[in-house]
Amino acid sequence: MADTQMTPGVIAGRLPPDAYAENFADLHPPLDRHEAAVAADRCYFCHDAPCITACPTDIDIPLFIRQISTGTPESAAMTIFDMNILGGMCARVCPTETLCEEACVREAAEGKPVEIGRLQRYATDTLMDRPHPYTRSKPTGRTVAVIGAGPAGLACAHRLAMLGHGVTVFEARPKSGGLNEYGIASYKTPDGFAQKEVEWLLSIGGITIRHNKQVGRDISLATLRKDHDAVFIGIGLGATNALDIEGSDLPGVEDAVDFIARLRQSDDPATLPIGRDVVVIGGGMTAVDAAVQSRLLGAQTVTMVYRREAERMNASLFERELAQTNGVRIITGAVPVRVTGQNRVEAVEFAYAVQDGGALRPGPDRFTLPADQVLRAIGQSMVPITNDPADAIEQDGASLLTGPGGRTAPHGNVFAGGDCTATGENLTVTAVAQGRDAAMEIHATLMGDG
Hints:
Layout: E1 10-11, H1 17-23, H2 33-40, H3 50-54, H4 61-69, H5 73-81, H6 87-93, H7 100-103, H8 105-110, H9 116-128, E2 143-147, H10 151-162, E3 166-171, H11 179-182, H12 193-202, E4 207-211, H13 221-227, E5 230-233, E6 239-240, E7 253-255, H14 256-264, E8 274-275, E9 277-281, H15 285-296, E10 301-306, H16 317-325, E11 328-332, E12 334-340, E13 347-356, E14 359-370, E15 373-376, E16 380-381, E17 395-396, E18 399-400, E19 414-416, H17 428-446
């Protein structure tokens, strides 16, 4: 008898074969030429456009939409790429509903914004199947080490290469892309888009990537500082916060980011084991991605549990509604107190949270959810890149402290950007902006203008 959604345990192949292709198809299919023209026609082309202010990379949104409306999507793409070289990915994964589209005057007037994200994808896709549109400046003879091949590191590396510097990127994992490759739901970036974008970006030349090279393990920060004129740190957040309750070490309890990465690296989602009853602990984008994909893989019940009220979840309203549309139950105001099971997880006990001097603690009212798989999505932290006090970089709490242009202290030639910094926002678009701006600061410094 074939396995189904009702089959107990953590197994693969819960759904009919054709269901997987349908479930993991593109969340927002691309616009065709006519659809793009109609969507662009809704833009008011505001002179003092609030959507630009809301975009972390400061893309001139009315300009690129006007370029689409006049039949020149290639020019629109260049308007985007000039500010955001990962504009193709950002068009797919940016929470536009809380950024540019939320600021759109159409949203304020009608409750239906211009589809900025889909228009951006339409524009950028026109150039990404063509030769790279940028050329390098004359080589400067200066070299920069970039730590991390995620959004911040790639944006920094591309801008530095364009300015004529030699760049070597040190990436701890076997593939480039960082969060874009390993940490975003498959239905948001199907067909290997993350790697296609990396290959397109690297075709500018002048960038070497050394995979499986973790700074702090395989090479030291001190060596990079010595061998290069500048160093940029864009390592993101590689460590998941611990659950730290009884039973959290039982088999079947794992990090949601590892679950997402495993799915992203799988050639066939039908081969990925999933539980019948899945519990996701957390309320951010990672929690939603893990919960929705659990349902798409065939889990019978998926429940997200978040410790505060729904309005304080990091996941946007769109993401929460996406989860519920896909059959995910969301419980708010509850904290896990115990994971139970004999040889592996069987259930999770929760307590409704109560306020205690501004902090949350488990209250007396409790409930239990059956679970044969538990996914932790309770935040991430930075992985240290050095244990040598002489190499230490000033921090703001657990994050790197940066000044204008991503400068760090006390080393004059070390810069940082993205989620590993105190100003990071766990968004691809913000990481890109900080990587780009740090590249400009590094360039000014190396050329004597900083």
